[in-house]
Amino acid sequence: MIFTEDFFSPTSVYPSEDLVQLVDSFTKENVNYQKYTGSATLIDDGVVYRKKGNDFYVDTNFLTSGQLNIQRFGAKGDDLTDNNAAIKRALAFCENYRKERIISGKAPNGMDVLYHQFDKAITIYFPNGIYRYTDIGNIKIENLTIKGETFRGVVLKCMKGGIALEMNAFKDDYSSPPFCKNLNLNNIVVEGQYNTEVLIFAQGISHSNWENVAVREADKDLGIGFYFKGVMLSGFKNLQCSSDVDTVMKTGNKNIPYQGLKLDHGHRIQKEKQIIEGEEVIVEVLNGIGNCSNNSFYDIKMEGMSFGVNIFQGDQNTFYGGTPESCTKYGLMISRGSRYNTFIGSAFENDYSIADILDDGIHTVYINCYASKKAWFQGQGSTVLGGFWQEVQIDNSAEATKIENVTIKYFPLPSEGIIDNGKMTTIQNVRDKILGTYIPNKYNATVHLGSAQRPQNNSVGSMIFDTDLLKPIWFNGNSWVDASGNIVIYFLNLGKYPKYITTAAIKIAAVLFVIF
């Protein structure tokens, strides 16, 4: 059994064979190295490419799998060691390995040419443990996956305030950098401190997939669990910022973040010349790249904070399931700059909050969700299709809200049902659980009733749409009248014909009878 540090030692006495089977000095796992015979200039990185005398060896396990054990870089998951240097070393290797390489070769016609080559994706693998660090810098490496052995078995524990884990494609780059694609997290817990402002900050990330990622411990008054700016076209499964399920936040220091997930507009940084007080100066300006958009969130848990999910600026994001629950202010808050977001089968159970949902967005859709306290609509075109709802409040700033095929007053909390002060509201097939009946339909803010449902008395000036006559009618204090002032009276039950007819129609019928 030969250890890697012994074989590649400057004083090594082992022969330089073409293929050697070794044991990694840090992880004690078996590794195979093959002598490199190419012409490229290599650097001894201490892990994958190793130098022995005048020869270079390459780790064939890595070339086959693309996976590197972080402990091979000297990291220790003992909750004591500062792994700053080890993690930075691993990231530096990945960044260098992922860079575009130009290699020489032969074209089919025999001419010498240069080829652009991109190497395969890389996975940095963390065995179970708690890995302390202080500042590992910003990560913006394409085709990189940071993966833990098991979910909640691997904790990346940041020992300073500010941002615990930063993945920012646009940081400190004035050259209009591209989005960073395929930057993934899997089976990772990121832990902060009482003064952590953001646990995971991501900007300009796209086409990425995160699964089983949890965050905990941050500033109680300002801290954000997941802060995404301009993140697009990515999938996020089982993101967790939850004092309901995380034992550290539940029973430990209880440094519960203020917000769980925040979606926001992203920016690149650019430098431009400006005249300030008569002098030309170079200033940094933010160039917007768009809202967080077209992302899919599966079964996320944002629980026990002031705000669960805050869609400040986000478009066309879809949430499947998930629980913005147990929050003290709002489980979900959507601002006016957010458009066409969709929630399917999500659970909003925030009994001690101001409201489960505060929606000031544009055309949000809720499909078969439930909210145990109140859904509060202030924006444009929000649509609720199916599900159990306790109370729905539609403010006068809301336009074209649609509530269809739902049950209200479902939970054992005080409820006024549907409070509608909006414009062009549509209410259809809404069942009141307490009353055990369906409430009157309303289309574009007009109540729609058939003749059998129409009340005999109502407030003066109130309007309904008569579904038998297929037109609006008003109550004048004594009778229902149409737009011409004709009284709508009971006539005959003629099956498919209207049960009610206007006085004008009676007069016309009488004239025709006399003529004929």
TrEMBL record:
Gene3D superfamilies: Single-stranded right-handed beta-helix, Pectin lyase-like. It comes from the Bacteria. Residues 68-160 form the Rhamnogalacturonase A/B/Epimerase-like pectate lyase domain. This is Rhamnogalacturonase A/B/Epimerase-like pectate lyase domain-containing protein.
